[in-house]
Fold this protein.
Amino acid sequence: MERRNMNMIRKVLIQFGVICLLVAAAANTGYAQIFTDVKSDSKLNEELTVLNNLGGVIQSPNDTFRADDPITRYEVAEFIVRTLQIDLEMSAIPTYLDIPAEDPRMPVIAAITELGMMTGYEGKFNPDAKLTRAQAVKILAPAFQLSGQTAIPYTDITKNHSAAPAIAALVANKIVFPAKNEKFNPSDMMTRGNFVSYLARIVEPSLRPTEPEQPVFQSCVKEKAKKRYVVDVAVTNLWNKPNQARAVDYPSTKNPVEMQKWISSLSLSQKKWLVGRTDTQALYGDEVTLLETKGKWQRIAAKDQYVPYLKAGYPGWVPQSHVVATNKNYDDCAIAIVTADKTNLLEKDAKTKYLQISYATILPVIDETAKYYYVETPGDGVKLLKKSAAKSHTSYSEVPKPTATTIINEAKRYLDLPYLWAGTSSWGYDCSGILYAVFRTHGIMIPRDSFYQATGGKAIAKKNLKAGDLVFFAYNGGKGKVYHVGLYIGDGKMLHAPHYASKVKIESMNNGVYKKNYSGARRYL
């Protein structure tokens, strides 16, 4: 009886403590960035700051929060216990088969167990087990004694669902504000970001949403044990050696990159200097293989850019900050291919610019509305992509194959764009880069470089040329190594990007050096 009374008193004290915490939290006004992967002006950073001030979230210098990672049972227990500022010395040590008494996590587990907020199963606490969204809210709502009756607007939660009372309490207290026709996705894993958002809104009412929020998606993204490496800037140059970049190249080596600023600042001689030093580019979201690390540079291989000498893809050196490691796998996701010259990814408010990306960028799609695709980014969660700027397909293999007219018209969009050696983005192309980008956008991954493009597809005699064929030029009167490629558009003319001092243009392939060095044609359509 005495023990039961102590627990009851403790619960009363907890309730009173929560009220005090609300008042204390409301005084907070500063929202400096406290985790390196959560932007200072984001709603999540505001919520994390409130919890940090209460001790519910512990900030470490230069640490990441991993908002999109699934939350574990121990993490739920720790967030709750520390937010409530429970004295960890007071709780009796429980007996769990999988947690020895001396385990450093035991004080938190003991406190959450004694409070009755979480208990074990078959003698185990299972601290590393991940929780579904339904399981997490069934712990959270009663832990803070949230109550309230309201119609549940989530389309996938029935009245008899086991999590319905907890979800109703969250809705009634405006911890969540569902958008129209939104799903709760109870079987999806609860993320660390979503859980701390709900927790912060419970202890600080001013954080509660006043209008419908963007939905929580039933993501096609899967967690895998094996890490993948993905380009995390709009476009990155692949250098043939590390640490070659000059001071003038800084806008292209920092994160985020400023490609237009970089290219516009280059003189012709500075552009020419790039020849033989940069080899290609990779776009935002491109998967790469990590080959080697030297200081702040990594040697990677761009998987979608074929070279015969390396199975992993086209190799080159990039700044470490341009590539992010992830355990996420997108094989089950649809894709969006950017068809606009350039477009801005937007934050979930559909107003705030996140990042400008290039034509031919490919990103996984996890949901959509009438105006937007919700796309997964390499390292910063879900962003919005305007449907008017991209086309979605169930997979890359399902992209409809283009006609020659489509390919030619797409390439013509870049007439007068200044040439950029090694360029594969719409900030600047080289001769083979523009063709690689246009074909890639339309479901055909041709090799990246002209001398490899000249070995693929179907060989075509000059007399049988058709619009849409690729025409090649080689040293030694067309008998040596291929050095240039153009897109044949008919009537003896080609669209091409000639050299560092030129622009994308249309001209005859039957005059001067082009007539002399013509070496053959290939058909990829």
Q: What stands out?
A: Residues 1-6, 19-29 have pLDDT under 50 and may be disordered. Residues 1-207 form one domain. The two ends are 82 Å apart (CA to CA). The longest helix spans residues 2-26.
